[in-house]
Write a structure and sequence with these properties.
The protein has 301 residues and is mainly α. The protein is built from nine helices and two strands; from the N terminus they run H-E-E-H-H-H-H-H-H-H-H.
Length: 301
């Protein structure tokens, strides 16, 4: 089956991949090397590898739709039209990295790592990196036409800014304004449950994307749920439930590492890396169905 590369690409594939698939009989000199058609065995290997998100077919469009498959490194949960010669760089890794680091530090504190239980330090990170930088990344996602990325990154940037405003020691005095600490803990629990609902909505939009992208939102969703429950279902002393908060911190850590994983998938390409980060498309995704169709057609030949 002939395949045609999309010239509007993410940049995450080996040099010469476009010409290799655009002209199967290409024997011209490409980037100083001699181009050639892949053998049947090499093509089979490349198709198998692309199902796990790596290899020369990983981020190359092989359909006639002119759209690229879902990719967490671009914060795209479904098929999307690549932006050729865009003036903006890919803002998704920046937003993912800002989210990851802030979540990483807060999650360690939620797990009471080394006895640290007060999130005062996170306030500064939440204002500067998780809040402001991630919000800017979300605005840049709007500029490149990514509705999902703009909604998610801008919203979580707003989350970190609001989180920092609420917990700024001696600053906005929001916590001190409550005469009853129980009311504050309940209100903060409502705040977290609202973010659980919002994250669930985004999670539903990743069901046909990649495993790495889905894992990010799945673990984050569980983190918000458990943290919300921890504040609403308190212990005998009336404090946030320690085991539940620690469980929320654990899933927050997983979400942080999943965000970093997707970020490096968006950063690493043939210009700066010796390998492509595997992201693994779901079998029922558009990319997965396309690969299964190709495999079936080759089997019948």
């Amino acid at each position: 089956m002939a395949t045609t590369a999309n010239t509007d690409h993410t940049g995450n594939h080996p040099p010469g991949a476009e010409k290799m698939y655009q002209d199967p009989n290409n024997t011209a000199n490409t980037n100083g090397g001699i181009g050639r058609q892949m053998t049947h065995e090499e093509h089979q290997t490349a198709v198998a590898a692309s199902m796990f998100g790596y290899g020369p077919l990983a981020h190359v469009n092989t359909s006639a739709s002119g759209r690229l498959p879902a990719f967490g490194g671009e914060f795209q949960p479904g098929l999307y039209k690549g932006v050729k010669d865009r003036k903006f760089a890919n803002p998704a890794p920046l937003g993912l990295s800002a989210f990851a680091l802030t979540t990483f530090v807060l999650s360690l504190i939620n797990m009471n790592t080394r006895g640290v239980g007060h999130p005062n330090l996170v306030v500064g990170i939440a204002f500067g990196y998780g809040g402001l930088v991630q919000l800017l990344a979300g605005m840049w996602e709007m500029a490149v036409g990514n509705t999902f990325g703009a909604t998610a990154l801008s919203s979580y940037g707003g989350f970190w800014l609001s989180f920092a405003i609420i917990l700024t020691p001696g600053g906005f005095a929001i916590e001190e304004a409550y005469t009853n600490m129980t009311d504050f803990l309940d209100a903060f629990g409502f705040f977290l449950m609202g973010w659980f609902i919002f994250t669930t909505i985004l999670l539903l939009c990743t069901l046909r994307s990649t495993i790495a992208f889905f894992t990010l939102f799945f673990t984050l969703d569980l983190a918000f749920l458990l943290l919300g429950i921890g504040y609403l279902h308190r212990d005998a002393k009336g404090e946030p439930n320690p085991p539940v908060i620690k469980a929320g911190g654990f899933f927050g850590l997983l979400a942080a590492f999943a965000a970093w994983y997707n970020a490096i998938a968006g950063i690493a390409d043939d210009s700066n890396s010796f390998f492509i980060i595997p992201v693994a498309h779901f079998p029922w995704s558009v990319k997965g169905q396309e690969l299964r169709k190709e495999k079936s057609e080759r089997a019948t030949v």
